[in-house]
Amino acid sequence: CLRHDERYTGQCWTTVSDISERRQAHDTLEGLVRQQTTKLHLTAEQLREEVEQRRRVGEALQETERQYRILAQNLSDGIGIIQDGKFVFANVALTVLFGFADGQMIGVDPFSLIHQEYRNDVRAIFNEVKPSGMSGPFLAQGVSKTGRTLWIEGEFRAMDWEAQAATLLTVKDITEHKLQNIALENERKRL
Q1: 50 close to 43: Cβ distance less than 8 angstroms
Q2: How does DSSP classify residue 38?
Q3: DSSP 8-state symbol, 134
Q4: In the chain, pLDDT over 90 holds for what percent of residues?
């Protein structure tokens, strides 16, 4: 009650407002916030699980790649992976076969290691891989980094390497066998 002067009559003015609508809106908003918070917690948990799963898959992939590299590096056959006309991988056997040091074959054009007389035929076999996925074996004379000629038997196969199309080359050194066959044929001709 407000008293303005001595003539106070005993009357009071009171303001009463109904806040039930505000309370209801507040409760509704709090309920929505709780729902969204629950959804966010669930989504965050799902994301944590997905990140963990991807981490485990990544670790498994790295282990598989490590095992593959160990296997590829310890094979006696030469193995090379070709992308965009260049080696992107070459195992030890392939680098030794062609007289390169470890890592030096990366970026080398594989057809530069094929004797000129066989190069077009081997390139044609290589080009057949794209539609069929694999070539038949080929026989060709190769040329090492030092110019030494050797006989090789190889095969191309389509594959993916680091999420890009590539071609796998496997090569065997058959020089000794080929030279023995040539010697036998020359001996037959002589007799």
Answers
A1: no
A2: H
A3: B
A4: 50
Structure tokens at 78: 């030469």
- Asked whether residue 119 carries a pLDDT value surpassing 70, the answer given is yes
Task: Map residue 107 onto helix, strand or coil.
Answer: coil
DSSP H helices, 11-75, are: 20-74
The three-state secondary structure class of 160 is: strand
Q: Are the beta carbons of 87 and 105 closer than 8 angstroms?
A: yes
Q: Residue 82: which of 123, 115, 121 has the closest Cα?
A: 123
**pLDDT digits 0-9 by tens, 91-107:** 999 999 999 998 999 99
Q: Can you give the pTM of this predicted structure?
A: 0.63
Give CB contacts under 8 A, 24+ apart, made by 94-97: 94/169, 94/171, 97/142, 97/144, 97/150, 97/152, 97/171, 97/173
- The answer to whether the CB of 149 falls within 8 A of the CB of 124 is no
Neighbouring residues of 104: CB distance < 8 A, sequence distance ≥ 6: 95, 145
**CA pseudo-torsion sign 159, 105, 93, 73:** negative
* Sequence-separated (6 or more) residues with CB below 8 Å from residue 91: 72, 73, 75, 78, 79, 80
SS3 percent helix, strand, coil of the chain, rounded to 5, is 50, 20, 25
User: What rounded mean pLDDT belongs to the chain?
Assistant: 86
